[in-house]
Design a protein that fits this description.
Structural class: alpha+beta
Largest sheet: 12 strands, mixed
Number of domains: 4
Number of helices: 31
Length: 914
Amino acid sequence: MNPVTAPWVRTRLRAAPGAALALTVLVALTACLAAAFPRALDRYTDAGLRQSVDRAAADEGSVLVDAAPALGGSVADAEDSVRPKSLARGYRSVLGIVERPLVIDEKQSSYGVRVNESLPSPEKWLPRPDGVPAEMVLAAQQGLTDHIRLRSGRLPEVAGGRASVSTAEVEAAVTEETARKLHIEVGSVVHVPAQRDLTVHVTGIVKPERPDSAYWSVDSVLRTPSLRHQPAPPGTPSPTYWVGGLLLAPEAGPALLGTAPVGRYWHLAPDPDSVHGRDLDALASAVASLESGPGLERLHSTIGPLTEVTTGLDDVFTAYGQLRGDVGPLVVVAASGAGTVAAVVLLMAGGLATDRRRAELALLRARGASVRGLAGRLLAETAVLAVPAGALGLGVALLALPGARLLPALWAAAAVTAVACLALPLRAAAAHRFVRIHDGRRDVASARASRRRTVAELTVVVLAVGAVDLLRRRGATEGAGDLVAVAPVLVGVIAALVLVRLYPLPLRGLARPARRLRGAVGHLALARAGRTSASAVLPLLALLTAFTVAAFGGSVLSGVADARDRAALLTVGADARVEATDALPSGLPDRLGKASGVREVTEVGIDYEAKTLDAKTLDGRQSLPLAGVDPGAYAELARRTGLGAFPAGELTRPDGAEGGSEDAVLPALASPAAAERFGSGAFPLRLADGSIATVRIVLVRDHTPAVPGDDFLVVDRAGLTAEVARPNVLLLTGDDLNAGALRRAADGAGTVQLRSAERAEYVDSPLQSGAEHIYTAAVAAAAGYAALALLLSLASTAPERAALLARLRTMGLTRAQGRRLLVLESLPQALPAALGGILTGWATVRLLSPGIDLTTLALSTASPVGRAELHTDPWSLAVPAAAVLVLTVGVAALQAWWSGRRGAVTELRAGDAR
C-alpha cells in the first residue's frame, strides 16, 4: 500500500463534509471543556486561598519579625541598630530569607522601632473615662510619607537630622481618628514619663490613605485609639482607659532607647496576587521555615539571636487545606464522570465511522491494503480535523478563563485530541485485521461474548466493587485514593455491561409470543430490534454512565441545598425572625403581618435567664432559655417548618392555672438534654422578673422554632406572668419576604433576620461555590454528551430504517404504521436504558452515600444541622430517564414523518446509493 498522501485524505474529507464538520465541532467542544476544567479549578482554589488570607486578621495574615536592639555592644551600636539605614538593611535581609512561593507585598509591609508597651501620660486634657490616665504607644515607622495624606500642620522631623539616646524632645504626628478621640491638636504637647522623661510635640495630623491595609492594621493602635479595660477583682467594675499612637519621625528611633524597653519590627504582608492554591504545601513550608526552621536560623545570624517570628498564616493554610481536601474528591468525582461520558462519545464516534465505512475498508483490505497502511490513512484523515479543532478549543478555554496554569489545560486538550485521532484508526484496525469477503450478520439476540470480553468485564467488576467498598469504609475525604474518584463511573460501567448481557434475553423470550400477534407491526418491530447490530448497544455505555453522573451530581447539589436550607431554618426558626432584648411594641405584629409576602406571625416571649432551683443541678443556679408561646399557633408553626411538631393540646396550661401561679404545674416541651437533666418530675424555675414557674416535661423534641440550639424549654405563656409573657421574638412565615420592608415595618424595634440571608452566609468560600458550579457543569455536560451519543446511534441507522420504510410502503404499509414501527423498534433499547439508568443512579447513591460527607461543601461554618449526607434526588433520576424516552421516540417519529414526505422511490434510491 502506498504511503499516506494528502490528495487521498482531501478526497475522503470532501466525500463526507457533514461527518467531517461534525467531528471538528465535537473535538473542539470537548477540548474546550476539558481544558476549561483545570483552569476553572485553579481559579476557584486561588480565589478561595486569597480570600482566606485577606479575611485573616492583620497580625495573623502577616509575618511579624521582632528583635531587640543590638545587645552586647556600646550605646552607639544600639543607636545605630534602630536608625533607618540599619532597619532598611534588616528589611532587605528578611525579604531575602523569605522562600518562594511566599511573596511579600513591600507596599503594604512596614518596619521600624517602637516601645514594647504603652506608656501612661499625665496630661489632664487627655480623656479619662474612669479617671485612669491615657497611655501612648510611640513608634518610628518607616515609609510614613507614602501611606498618609497631611491634613494639617507638618510631618515630624528630628532636630539636626540625628537623634540619640539622650534626646529629650521629639516631634510626632497623629491620625485624624486619634486626634478626634483624644482631643489632640497641632501644637499639643504630650509628656511621657518613663525611665527617662520624653516630651512629644504634635506637629501634624494625617489621614491614612488605606486604613484597612496591612501597613496600618498590624499595629492598629497607631491608626485608631483603643478603649481598654484595666484588670479588676471579680465582682467589681473594670475601669477603662484610652491607648493612642504617636507617629515619630523615622530618624527618631534612638530617642526611644532611654524611655522604656523598645523593639525593632518588620511586619511582612504577603502579596495576595502571588498566592495560589496549587502552592499550598510550598507556602506552608516557607512559613514553617521562618517560624522554626532554616529561615529562623538565618534571621538569628543576620538580625540577632533574640529575633522572633510570629504569624497566623500556618493556621490559615491548614484550615484552607482541610477545606480543599474535603471538597477536592467530590470535584474529581464530577470531573471523572463527565470526562468518561465524553470519552465514550468520542470512541463511539470512531466506532460509528468505522461501521459506516465497513464496506469501503473491507474492499481496501481485499485489494491488498495492509492494516498499518489503512490505519495510517484514517489517522491522517482524523488528525487533519482533530488537531486544529483541539487547538481551537484550547484557545477558547484560555481566553474564557485567564489567570490559570497553561500546562494542565494543554494536557487535557491534547488528551481529547489524541482520543479523537486514534478512535477511528484503532477501531478500524481491530475490525479489519483479517481480510473478509462477508462478515455475516451479527444480531444482538444471537451474538455470544468472547472470552477476552468476559475477562475484561470481570476485571472492571472487581475494580468497581473494590472502589465502592473502599469509599464506604474510608470515605471520600479520608485518602481513599484515586480509585474512589471513579467509583460512580465504574458502577455505571458495570450496570451497562450487565444490561448489555441481559438485553438479548427478553428479545429471545418475546420472539415466539410475538408471532401470534394479529398485526405485522409489533412482530416486525421486535424482529428488527433483535436483528440490530451488536455494535448498536455501544451508546448504552454512554447513557448509563451519564445517568450515574446525573444521579450522583444531582444528589450532591440537592444535598448541599437541603443542608443549607435546614441549617438556616434551625438558626432562624422560620422564614424570618424579629428579635429584641426587651419586649416588642404591641402593634408590631400587626404591622409586620401587613408586609409584603408575610403569611403568619407567631409571637414568642423568651426568657434567656430562667434559672432552675432544683438542688440537683449546679447548686440551683443553672440557666436555660424558656419560651412562652401560644400552643395553637406555635404547634402550627412547628408543623409547617418541620421543627419538632407536637399536638397543641399537650402544651396547653391546665384549667385554673393563672399567669404567674406557683402552684400550677405547666406542661413543657424540652430538648433531649433538658429532659435528661430534669426527668419527668415537676421542678421550679425562677424567671427574669423574679416570679416562680413550676413545669413538668411532657414532650421531648430535638429542635424547636423559637430557640436555636439543643437546650430549651417551651411552655404555654398563658401560665406565665404578664411581664415574662410579653413577646420579644416574632417568627414570620411567608414567600419572597423583603428584608427592607420588614425593617421598615420593625422601625428599629428589633433586629430582623431572614432565612434566605442566613442561607447565603453558608457559601463562604469561592472554593465552595466553584465546586457547585463544576458539579452543575459536569451534570450538564454528561447529559449533553449522552444525548449526543443517542443521536449518533440513531443517525447511524437512519438510512437503513428509511429504506426499510420505503420498501414496506410499496407493500401497503401506511404512514401511521410506519411511525409505530419505528417507535416500537426503538423502545427495546430506550426502555432498558431508562429503567437501568434509574436503577443504576439509585444504587450508586445508596452505595456511596455512607462514604460521602457534604458538610464542608454545604456549610462554611459550624451549624446545628450536623453532618450533611448524600440522599437520592428523585428529579435527578426521573428527568434523564424521561429525556431518553422522549428523545428516542421523538427522533423515530420525526424520521417516519420525514420519510413519508420524501416518497418511496426517493428513499429507495437513497438507500441504494448508500
